[in-house]
Amino acid sequence: MRAVIQRVKHASVTVDGKIVGKINQGFLVLLGVTHTDTEKEVEWLSKKITDLRVFNDADEKMNLGLKDVNGELLIISQFTLYGNCIKGRRPAFIDAAKPDLANDLYEKFLKKCKDLGFKTEAGIFGADMKVELFNDGPVTLIIDTDDLKK
Asked: What is the pLDDT of residues 95-127, one digit of tens each?
């Protein structure tokens, strides 16, 4: 799994002109799934993201976690995170999981984040989504579970 995490003041996702997910302070997470991912990656990555300490404390140090600031999550499925742009001018998406597997793990990821006690909003898997965010910092992080296998 690959996640791009952005610390936000607020964020929303719109499908067909209707807001389907909206959060206040927290993380916008763009989540990509590859064909070798399992529930093991769901467990590890959901815990890793929700435990990140990247919110400022009273001394302006990134020392507070999502729970400390009553943060929320907006999680958007994004197969293009597995786009390979090395050759040619058009990305290849052969490393992205097939839709059935990707949607299953995406839904499990959403459930795990909710089970960890966080308000969790989401886009609609496979839909044409418009994402709006107010990046805070900016703070943007990338976590790739493939790095665990090296």
From this structure: 999 999 999 999 999 999 999 999 999 999 999
Say yes or no to pLDDT of 149 above 80. Answer: no
The CA distance from 1 to 143, in Å, is 8
User: In angstroms, what CA-CA distances link 31 with 16, 45, 60, 95, 147?
Assistant: 21, 10, 28, 14, 16
Concatenate the DSSP letters of all residues of 20-62 into one string.
Answer: EEEESSEEEEEEE-BTT--HHHHHHHHHHHHH-EEEE-TTS-E
CA-wise closest residue to 77 among 129, 132, 12, 116: 129
Q: Annotated catalytic sites, by residue?
A: 80
Residues 6 or more apart in contact with residue 86 via CB below 8 angstroms: none
Q: Which of 14, 19, 6, 12 is nearest to 129 (CA)?
A: 14
Phi, psi of 105 (to 5 degrees): -70, -35
Average pLDDT over residues 24-36: 98
Whether the CB-CB separation of 25 and 136 falls below 8 Å is answered with: yes
